[in-house]
Design a protein that fits this description.
With about 160 residues, the protein is mostly helical. The chain has helices at about 1-20, 25-40, 50-80, 90-110, 110-120, 130-135, 140-159.
Length: about 160
């Protein structure tokens, strides 16, 4: 791992700086990329094309970064239009932002159809038949997707 880091860290950080336009965010995501590689099931010795592998891992982290930033901005925009007496305290705001990030991360790790069924059920409060019709799937699939989503959420929350 040390060799992978020493050989490719500068290159990766430069690549990320070009994508993000910010040296600090690039440094953070480069670090996160190597942490993710370290924690992955793929042995470092099995990585045949390190730059391609690191770029792929980093690309996923960049997508998460921009999605999280967009989510945070939407929350801040919402707070900006609240009357002052209804605005949450800074501590409550921080808790809400972290909760939104966690929910986004949890939903982001679900397969697309499972995620869509879960969002329709939980946030739009659609019934199983309505979800089946909207997604063009059977009621049994809706049931399976929602069961998978709930199991996934339970495992994530347990961790």
């Amino acid at each position: 791992m040390q060799s992978l880091y020493l050989d490719h860290h500068t290159w990766l950080q430069s690549l990320l700086r070009k994508r993000l336009g910010n040296r600090d965010d690039a440094a953070d995501l480069a670090h996160d990329t190597f942490v993710r590689v370290l924690r992955s099931d793929t042995p470092v010795e099995d990585i045949r094309e390190p730059q391609r592998y690191l770029a792929t891992v980093a690309r996923g982290l960049v997508a998460d970064f921009f999605r999280r930033r967009s989510l945070e901005q939407a929350y801040l925009d919402y707070l900006a239009v609240l009357p002052e007496d209804m605005a949450p305290s800074p501590e409550e705001q921080a808790i809400m932002q972290q909760t939104l990030i966690n929910v986004d991360r949890m939903l982001g790790s679900l397969p697309p159809k499972v995620r869509e069924a879960f969002v329709l059920a939980q946030f739009e409060e659609l019934t199983y038949p309505e979800i089946a019709q909207r997604l063009g799937i059977s009621l049994r699939s809706v049931s399976n997707y929602l069961t998978r989503a709930m199991e996934h959420c339970a495992v994530v929350l347990e961790d």
